[in-house]
Write a structure and sequence with these properties.
With 313 residues, this protein is mainly alpha-helical. Helix content is 78%, strand content 0%.
């Protein structure tokens, strides 16, 4: 009975925390808007994940030392996860912002949760019903409605540029990052696991950052640049990634991925409060669709879990 109580409490915490993930990631969007001319993409990503890795390593030092043989045995897994989650989903997003517009970035990146949901069905064997599919459609519709500002005719004006291709790769890579963590279960705690993934990402990012620093056009690192590295390391780095990895273990890959649809809605609110960008009716309408879709997927999966527990009893 005690384990069941703890399990129920853990699920409640996970259900509450997943709503915080996209809010923390909006900090990265604000930082990305300030980065051009201040810090180059790979240098920013390296500083972000190097600092995040150092913080997480200190917090889990005793565990990492005790599990050092395990970590070394699976080092290539961490390099692969770091490449997907910290290099492609980090520096490549900053690269995309140099040649494409926010509308294209949001629209393309919104496909990532769909890829995760489909991958969870085909590769991980997670259940996915018609009502969950309806939830995906509702959420995706809400995302598009926010991105095109309620004017669907704008969809016909989308033109692919190099930045769009960077984001396509990032969307696919994020799906791979989420699915690989489910495919490769670990004995490490979420803190130690993320620390190892950070260092895998640092190993991949380092040569690209060194190359950028060797270019005459690369901005000199200033206090502003270091601030951007620090804030992205703490909030969308340590905070968002740790919560994502932990809640995914508790709730499942496709269920947590659905909250990524909240990104455009959260971004619209943060842009209104922090950057002074207007908040329109299309944000409210899109938000209603997004929340409905996310809620439907969560409700269906909760019902499936309850049925499974009833059968076991």
């Amino acid at each position: 009975m005690p384990s069941e109580v703890v399990s129920a409490r853990t699920r409640r915490w996970a259900l509450a925390l997943i709503w915080l993930i996209p809010l923390l990631w909006t900090v990265n969007i604000v930082a990305a808007r300030q980065a051009p001319g201040v810090v180059s993409p790979h240098v920013l990503a390296l500083g972000r994940w190097g600092l995040a890795g150092a913080i997480l390593s200190v917090l889990s030092a005793s565990e990492l030392w005790a599990q050092r043989a395990y970590v070394w045995q699976h080092r290539w897994r961490y390099v692969a996860l770091g490449a997907c989650g910290m290099w492609i989903c980090g520096a490549w997003v900053y690269l995309a912002g140099e040649s494409t517009v926010g509308m294209n970035i949001s629209l393309i990146y919104a496909s990532s949760p769909v890829l995760i949901a489909v991958g969870s069905l085909l590769w991980l064997g997670e259940r996915f019903s018609k009502r969950q599919a309806l939830g995906v459609v509702l959420a995706m519709t809400g995302v598009v409605h926010v991105v095109v500002k309620g004017e669907w005719a704008h969809l016909s004006q989308v033109q692919l540029v190099p930045g769009d291709l960077w984001i396509v790769a990032a969307a696919i890579s994020w799906a791979a990052y989420a699915l690989l963590q489910k495919r490769w279960p670990t004995t490490l705690s979420p803190t130690a696991q993320l620390a190892c993934i950070c260092w895998g990402g640092v190993a991949v990012l380092l040569p690209f950052a060194i190359w950028e620093l060797s270019l005459a056009s690369t901005p000199v690192l200033t206090p502003h640049a270091w601030f951007l590295m620090a804030i992205t390391a703490l909030l969308p780095g340590v905070g968002a990634y740790w919560i994502y990895g932990w809640t995914q273990k508790v709730l499942g890959a496709s269920r947590v991925a659905m909250t990524l649809y909240l990104g455009p809605l959260y971004t619209a609110v943060v842009a209104w409060l922090v950057l002074g960008e207007p908040l329109g009716w299309h944000h409210l309408a899109g938000g209603a669709l997004i929340l409905s879709g996310v809620g439907l997927v969560m409700a269906v999966q909760a019902a499936h879990r309850a049925q499974s527990q009833t059968k076991e009893v």
